[in-house]
Write a structure and sequence with these properties.
This protein is α+β, with helices and mostly antiparallel strands and 109 residues long. The protein has 2 domains: 37 residues; 55 residues, no CATH class. The protein contains 4 helices and 2 strands; from the N terminus they run ααααββ. A two-stranded antiparallel ribbon has the order 1-2. A hairpin with a 6-residue loop joins strand 1 and strand 2.
Amino acid sequence: MSEAMDRFDIRLPAHAKQLLMEAAEISGNTLTALVLNAALDKAREVLQSHRHFILNAEEWRQFTATLDDPPESNDALRTAWRDIACRTTVVTARTDAPGALWMIALPRT
């Protein structure tokens, strides 16, 4: 059984379409395949950058210090929590080890 297909139309300047058509032809792709693959690659990149982060030693120290001594609640933190809670399913787990607090945020399906 194949996946249902949706339609996605965009408006773009004629010169932009011509550039995309040239790139599609040179790469041996259809215009649709070229644009879809490029858009999916960019979407994955954006999502990856918002789901994972890498910290250097000093940033990690600051991060864990904040977990050990969190700031007082304020409007900005409450707004951020509401925003992430609307877009994700949040699962938290805490162990007995000091500072061992993990938050896992999964995209809502």
